[in-house]
Amino acid sequence: MTAATGPRPRHLLDFQDWSAERLSALLDNADTMSQVLDRPVKKVPALQGLSVCTAFFENSTRTRISFELAARRMSADVVSFAAGGSSVSKGESIRDTIEVLTSYKVDAFVVRHASAGAAHLVARYSGKPVINAGDGRRAHPTQALLDAYTIRREFGSLEGKTVAIIGDVRHSRVARSNAELLPKLGARVVLCGPATLLPRELAADGVTLTTDAREAVRGADAVMALRLQQERMDAGYVGSLQDYAAQYQVNETLLSYAPDHAIVMHPGPMNRDVEISSDAADGPRSRILQQVENGQAVRMSTLYHLLVGRA
Questions:
Q1: Theoretical Cys-Cys bridge with 161: which of 120, 197, 221, 264, CB 3.0 to 4.6 Å?
Q2: In b/e form, how buried is each residue of 125-149, taking b as 16+ CB within 10 angstroms?
Q3: Is there a single domain that holds both residue 296 and residue 174?
């Protein structure tokens, strides 16, 4: 395992307390975890005797399965909590729910919640290491890590790379986490979408904004499509799906403006033929399934880094 110097963060809520060196060490260790997943027996005893609670107050498929498999691959016990059908539906607060779960002597929490900042509350109430698996539209750090890992495996490094992220940036915790993470690792991020879906406050060192999709993909090493999160919208941010697709869909026409080596990514779930065409999603540039596959190794490395990997 690759070690990193300096204080080890107790949680992964976002990347505020994470140095570039420690983030790189986590991605390095994901290579080791990937090797474990290529073995006939995909299991190691790294977390044996520990228990991980996946506390999902919001629906999820990929993230939840990926985390639960990651914990089990490392021999941890998994306590799976879903808000639907629980006492939450009877009005129980998140504090009371987490304090009950903590009383079962779990060693770490993986939390998804529709409200921004919920993972911070879980860290406060539980006193245990917490991994943010998505809170509102604020952050989704392990998705950003697996995106970074996918790009790094493709090109060998993130240094000097350009990542174009196109779509509903306003409602995307994935876009925000990538905009926070990738510049730390030496990459440049271009956020693109209609002006109504492109918050100006996201512009920062290493992060530029544009409403021109062709401009966004010129020189890009990776092009990531984001879905329109209509379930989070309470206003008319786009005129119509047809108008949106005509200007911002990641398809072969748009990709013709990108370098030949540019790869296509999507955090899922996809709305095919809205933000991304089927040809682009299934084509030779696509690394979408590799993102899903890489998620397990990255989440194994994250759990190891927080629970075992002390440097």
A1: 221
A2: bbebbbbbbbbbbbbbbbbbbbbbb
A3: no
The residues facing 189 across adjacent strands are 163, 207
Cα separation, 132 vs 115, in Å, equals 12
DSSP string, 201-224: GG-BTTEEEES-HHHHHTT-SEEE
Q: Which residues, 6+ apart, have CB-to-CB distance to 66 below 8 Å?
A: 292, 295, 296, 299
Residues 282 and 162 placed together within one structural domain of the fold: yes
Q: What is the pLDDT of residues 121-166, one digit of tens each?
A: 999 999 999 999 999 999 999 999 999 999 999 999 999 999 999 9
Q: Is residue 19 within 8 Å of 4, Cβ to Cβ?
A: yes
Q: Is the peptide bond before 269 cis (omega within 30 degrees of 0)?
A: yes
Number of domains in the chain: 2
Q: What is the pTM of this model?
A: 0.94
Tell whether 283 and 146 lie within a shared domain: yes
- pLDDT, tens digit, 9 for 90 and up, residues 170-179: 999 999 999 9
Look up residue 50 and give its DSSP letter. Answer: -
Residues 127 and 170 in one domain: no
